[in-house]
Design goal:
Oligomer: single chain
CATH class of the largest domain: Alpha Beta
Number of strands: 14
Strand order of the largest sheet: 2-1-3-4-5-6
Helix content: 25-40%
CATH topology of the largest domain: Rossmann fold
CATH architecture of the largest domain: 3-Layer(aba) Sandwich
Number of helices: 13
Order of helices and strands: EHEHEHEHEHEHEHEEHEEEHEHEHHH
Largest sheet: 6 strands, parallel
CATH superfamily of the largest domain: Response regulator
């Protein structure tokens, strides 16, 4: 019998967060003994400008308090490795202190660029023994584009079976087209153009996620804005749609310099797990994940997206066949538990256990 791998996991704990999904998958792995710290417990959230300003001023204090707790747990638990999910509050000094105790440090990084979230995260990312990125372009760009010398590998995003998985076909689909994503400039411009090319009031469109309602003046008046959705409500919403748009954030500019953008997102795996038919932004990586025309339909620009919306809306049988094929491809291979096993393989190689 092999010894259990002792891991200290640090990440956000809110329902639906990717960090929480990975933590839960690791915690039920029989070969793992896991302790965890909720990073989001160490910095209060605030929408008020005053509170946000105070948070910026107090961030070094939050970082020191979190670091003290991490080091205390390391002394008591004696983990083989510390896994940090992104870790905006985990300072480079904390990582150095963990490593000085002879404990391996790993960062699971989920975003397009490690340079896009402030100087503290940018600096700390280079201190980990291993970075496991969800982005397929990161390993090739880790040294030349981002300037790091530590090791980086890729394990893509996945869907959480407890949150995103449905094993039966959607029944009532009372919405024609939906998108479920936080508003960002690139997505806003995309949907504004869709609105211009698809003004038909008889086509029902709903945009879920934070930020869309604040930009509704740029969009058709008959569109719906249900706001942010959490947990199973996200899947219930996209399953109501005949077509789900899956955009990808490809426009990443840091300090005036263009960097590689996303090739996929969590939606790439969550939407087929929920049994939806989706139109995915065409990327080289996504084309390797799904068989075009059989498991997924891709679009390169807004005109092609609208053309495919018009084509597929009246073709229910074709939509359902493609959705089922995508579901069969994604489940269970693209689940967070499956990704967790890939991550553990890299961790075991690092720690030699």
């Amino acid at each position: 019998m092999t010894d259990k791998l002792k891991l200290l996991f640090i990440g956000h704990t809110w329902n639906g967060s990717s960090a929480r999904s990975l933590r839960d998958a690791l915690s039920v792995t029989t070969s793992v003994e896991l302790d965890d710290i909720g990073e989001d417990h160490y910095q209060p959230k605030g929408r008020n400008l005053f509170i946000r300003g105070m948070n910026r001023l107090l961030k070094p204090v939050y970082q020191r308090e979190l670091a003290a707790e991490i080091l205390r747990r390391c002394r008591e638990f004696k983990p083989d490795a510390v896994i940090v999910y992104k870790g905006s509050l985990v300072s480079s000094l904390a990582i150095s202190s963990i490593r000085s105790m002879g404990i391996n440090t790993i960062n699971v990084f989920p975003d397009a660029s490690p340079h896009a979230h402030g100087e503290s995260l940018r600096k700390s990312m280079g201190q980990y023994d291993l970075v496991i990125s969800t982005k397929p372009h990161h390993p090739d760009h880790w040294r030349n584009t981002y300037g790091y010398t530590n090791h980086c590998v890729c394990v893509p995003h996945g869907y959480d079976p407890d949150v995103h998985l449905w094993e039966y076909t959607p029944e009532l689909q009372d919405l024609d087209v939906v998108i479920a994503a936080s508003w960002r400039r690139q997505y806003g411009e995309l949907m504004a153009e869709v609105g211009r090319l698809l003004p038909d009031s008889e086509i029902s469109v709903a945009l879920a996620g934070p930020g869309w309602a604040e930009h509704r003046n740029n969009l058709p008046r008959h569109w719906q804005f249900p706001g942010a959705l959490h947990g199973r409500a996200y899947g219930e919403f996209v399953r109501r749609a005949k077509i789900v748009i899956a955009p990808v954030h490809t426009d990443v500019t840091i300090a005036g310099r263009q960097q590689p953008g996303d090739q996929d997102t969590t939606r790439t795996y969550e939407l087929p797990a929920a049994g939806t038919f989706f139109l995915h932004k065409r990327t080289a990586f996504a084309e390797k994940v799904y068989d075009e025309g059989k498991e997924c339909v891709f679009w390169a620009d807004t005109a092609e997206l609208v053309d495919k919306i018009r084509y597929f809306l009246p073709r229910e049988q074709e939509r359902r066949e493609i959705a089922l094929s995508a579901h069969n491809r994604a489940v269970p291979a693209y689940s967070v538990p499956a990704r967790a096993q890939e991550i553990l393989s890299h961790v075991r190689t690092l720690v030699g256990k």
